[in-house]
Amino acid sequence: MNNCRALFSFVSDVVSLYYHSDQDVQKDPELQAWTKDISQEGFAELPDFGMPNKLSTKEELSTLLTVAIFTSTAQHAATNNGQFDWCAWVPNTPCTMRLPPPSNKDAVTMEMIMATLPDVGQSCVQMAITWHLGRAQPDAIPLGEYTEGHFTELPALKLIEKFRMKLKEIENQILDQNAGLDLQYLFLLPSRIENSITI
After folding, report:
1. pTM for the full model?
2. Residue 194: what are its φ and ψ, rounded to 5°?
């Protein structure tokens, strides 16, 4: 949750750097065309998705951008980075079942369970896939790092540095909360959240 709040604050600050008023948002033809394209083309099959076809305020823009960034960073890390830890024990999430579910749970035997679960070859494939999907990618760029150099203005660079400091605070809080735990949850450490999905 702290990651989301920090992200919204950062996005709002950057939006305010370039859009000084709600009218600036409303009068930006490229922004409005992008929003219309997303709502009418991107969600064409979901007409009741709830996304407006135009943006009226800086807050709406900040919210939309935060949702997009959060989905491809922290939310992706929460669902992706722990896959191997959970799926490597194949009975937790079997990739296939070789027999239908039993109709009488009292008749279930160990032989039936073993005949139903994936065989060794299928289990190895599942483990390999989840390891590849969940491992840290060699070209990963952590959240808050921008290697492209799109932001060059001093005010933007200061906001990026402020965001990085907040992420460092969050990282330290997560490490403190997990200190001494036998089973630590570190998938949402900002240093382990990719700046974008690399798979």
Report:
1. 0.81
2. -75, 150
